Structures are given as structure tokens and as C-alpha cells.
Amino acid sequence: MLKRWLLLASAILVIPGTASAASNDMFRGKTITYIVATTAGGGYDTYGRMIARYMPKYLPGARIIVRNVPGAGNIIGANAIYTARPDGTTIGMFNTGLIYNQLIGSAGMNFDIAKFTWLGKAATEARAVVLSTNSGIKSFDDMLKARDVKFATSGIGTASYFDTRILADALKLNIQVVNNFSGNTGELSMRRGEVVGQIGTVESLEQFVKGGGGFYALEISGSQAKLPGVPNVTQYAKDERAKKLVALVQAMSELGRLQAAPPGVPAETLAVLRTAMEQTIKDPGFVADSEKLNLPIDFLPGDVVTEKVKAALMQPADVVTALKAVAGS
Questions:
Q1: In the chain, alpha helices (H)
Q2: Which has the closest alpha carbon to 258: 117, 137, 122?
Q3: Using one digit for the tens of pLDDT, what is the confidence trace for 54-63?
Q4: How far apart are CA 143 and CA 295, in angstroms?
Q5: Alpha-carbon dihedral sign for residues 273, 274, 277, 283
Q6: Reduced to 3 states, what is the DSSP secondary structure of residue 194?
Q7: pLDDT for 137-175, tens place per residue?
């Protein structure tokens, strides 16, 4: 009996979809490139650099470097991840707006989002409409009566751009969309009175609101509602078309900070990367740093993300048609 126990204890059992102690060593001496599909300094870049800092702890002997590959609304960076060798040495992150882009068939996308190898997701990005406190508009109902109100968005093709266009259409907002704001330049423009509002994540706008620069006028979240006393978007979606478009935006908010690798990563390598990613994002130091930087953490594993991404891409024809019309407006 003792001999049998010793033999079992010394054996290495590899269960499909999990990482063994032996396989966890497969990246020793290798350099992993983490591609961030945005410029340096923003939220995506911050997440990427935190992951690059903590992940080697769970991939013994590996070195992770961050490479910023911005352009074309994250398409260039996503292309770089997708076309890399599927050996686990290239991973990265891009904006969920690319799901919208794939639905409408945007040019320049040399990838199928459904075929990425998903390692997990780091956050939930609950959305909200924030209005400037110096705009003279006191509520979302007041804004519905206003004319030609200027809203800041990120570059064309990003989640910020699509969210704003979609909700403007669904809720019949009389707004003028001003593109190509990055980082906190939208908030600065609101303080200067150049734009009245923007649609963004609750966490990214929280400090601006706490500082008195703006207020949450409308919550766009679904099941993850977190703004007590703030009206929810669902009460303003009056017809079926509007309700479907709002539901699409709400679904996108569940897929924040997606962690991707190229298609075709071998099963054992994938198991190691997924385990390391989960350990990284749940690492106490990582969590503490994210709290200091006001970065939300809401992890989901790669297999769950895979199914959610596929579901997001399976939109009915009328929603896709509406999305194309919104994007072209």
C-alpha cells in the first residue's frame, strides 16, 4: 500500500483543460509579448502593464513585455494578436468595440473575433451618461429637451463611439457627437464647457463625478446596476428596436478588458495561460493596485468568455441593420 501511494504521489497527472506543475514551467526562458491595442497611458495600457508585472509570478522564468500597437480603433493591435504564432508567446487586449465592428463588417479586420483564443476577462464595464455640472442641464429628462448638445467620444470604431451612436438613435437624443477624445480629455473638455457630456464606464468617470465636474444622469447597466437613485436606460427605451439596441450595449458592458491570444493555441499551453491569467488577476497585489488606481476587477475564465463573445456576435438581422445605420450616421 505504501509503495502504491508513493508511486501515485510521484506521478504527474495532466487533466485536460488544467495546468500541471510540470507544464507550468513551459515558458521558462521565453519572452511573452503583451499587445495593448491603444496608446500608452490609458486604462487599457494600465491593465496591460499590471498584468505584465504580476503574470511572471505564475509563469516561472518567463519575461513579459508590453507593446502598444494603436490605430484604426484597436483594429491594428487586434490584427497583430490574431496573426501571431499560436505558441503562447503573444497575448493581449483590445477594445470591445471590435465586436460592433465585426457585426457591421468594418474594413481592415483581418480576424474573426469568435476565433480568438480567450484567456479570460478582467472587468465589467458598467456604462453611464455623465453630464457636466456647468452645462445648465440638471437631469437626463432636461437633456432630452435640449438641442444640439455636444457629446465627447473616443475614436471612430471604439466602444465609446458605438455606445454613443447607438443610444443616441435608440433614445432619440438630439446630440452632436465629437470624436477622437482619449484618456481624460473628454472630462477636461466638459470642464471647459466645450462639450456637455459623454457616455463611458462608471469607474473611468467616477473621479470626475466625485470631483464635482459632472453627475451621473443615466445608468446603462443591466443586471450589474450600481448607481442608486440614477434612472436606468431601460425606462427610456420605448419600442422593440430601441430595447434590442439597449440590450446590446448592456451585453457589451459585461465583456470588459478581454484577454486574448491567437487562434489555435495548443490545449496544454492554453491551460497554462488561462490558469496564470486567473491567478494574476486574483493576485492580492494586483487587486490592491487596481483599487488604488480605481480599476474595476470582475474576472471571468476563458471558456465562459468564449461563450459570451459568441453570444454577442449572434445578433438578429434587424439589430445588425440598425447597427449599420447608426454607424453610418
A1: 2-10, 43-54, 75-82, 97-104, 140-145, 159-170, 185-191, 202-210, 240-252, 267-281, 284-292, 302-313, 317-327
A2: 122
A3: 999 999 999 9
A4: 29
A5: negative
A6: coil
A7: 999 999 999 888 999 998 787 888 899 999 999 999 989
